Amino acid sequence: MNDEKNKLITEFQQELKSKDDQYVKDLKKMAEDVDLMIERMDEQINNVTKAHREELEEIERAFVAERNDMLELHKKRWEEKMSLRGEKEDEYMNARIKRVDEYEQQLQHLRVQDAEEYNMVKIRLETDVQILEQQLQQMR
Residue 65, Cα to own-chain centre: how many angstroms? Predict the structure, then answer.
């Protein structure tokens, strides 16, 4: 009976050792699986980070392109407005010069007209003075 018990104990110890060995193998396998999973997760994190970085760069490029387009559009509008303003200033200056010329011509015409009128009045008055002097001479 002791032999049987010893045999049974030996079997149990062998089975325990076998189970311990299997447990150690399973732990090693699980550790390897965890390491592999961590490695794959790191790869995925790197891939996602790279994808996000590329997407962000693309968004930034699109933003810069849109900004440049807007700047170009506003610059073009500004130049059109400034050109229009320049044209209006030229028109205003030309109209002003034309008005000044017209006013100078009117002034010159009025001067000539006034001078003619003055001369006519002067001649008439001188004639009147002569007539009055003659009448005075006749009265004396």
Answer: 11
- CA max distance for the chain: 198
Q: What is the DSSP string of the chain?
A: -HHHHHHHHHHHHHHHHHHHHHHHHHHHHHHHHHHHHHHHHHHHHHHHHHHHHHHHHHHHHHHHHHHHHHHHHHHHHHHHHHHHHHHHHHHHHHHHHHHHHHHHHHHHHHHHHHHHHHHHHHHHHHHHHHHHHHHHHHH-
Q: What gap in Å lies between CA 140 and CA 124, rounded to an integer?
A: 24
Lookup result for tokens 């810069």: 64
Q: Which two tokens stand for residue 65?
A: 């392109």
Task: Please tell me whether the overall predicted TM-score, pTM, comes out greater than 0.70 for this model.
Answer: no
Instruction: Read off the pLDDT of residues 37-65 as tens digits, 9 standing for 90 and up.
Output: 999 999 999 999 999 999 999 999 999 99
